[in-house]
Amino acid sequence: MNHEDPFRAVEEWSGCTISSPLRALLSSLNGATVGDLAHFYAPADLLERNETYETRTYCPGWLTIGDDGGGSAIVVVPDRWPTAVYLVGHGSMSRADFVAVAEDLRGWVASGCEL
Asked: Looking at residue 1, what is its pLDDT?
């Protein structure tokens, strides 16, 4: 795997393309917490976090980009932009358990990530 580009490593592992706007947004956030609860993973941590939460197994086609600090993952479709935002419990990462948070990730971040 190419570890010089953390997004490429995630793409190779997941089989999903990560859109350029999503790459740019996650790079600019770089591990920041937005609002009271939304913590976004730094690009260098994306692969490890998605491996740990077994996103590829339980939510194929989705990418975990952060968490709420309370046991829920923040997930998006990585090749769609704008992309909707969902929360799902780390212990039940099934599409049936997704809770819609926002229609547009960029707008959600700009508004302070209200949960």
From this structure: 46
C-beta of residue 41 within 8 angstroms of C-beta of residue 66:
yes
The string of DSSP letters for 7-55 reads HHHHHHHHS----HHHHHHHHHHTT-EETTTEEEPPHHHHHHHHHHTTH
Domain encompassing residue 67? 6-108
- Low-confidence stretches of the chain (pLDDT beneath 70): 1-3
C-alpha closest to that of 69 among 87, 48, 46, 43: 87
Which residue, chain included where needed, has tokens 């941590």?
A: 45
58 CB-near residues (< 8 Å, 6+ apart): 93, 94
Q: Look at residue 113 and tell me if it is in a domain.
A: no
Single pTM value for the model: 0.94
Q: Count how many domains the chain has.
A: 1
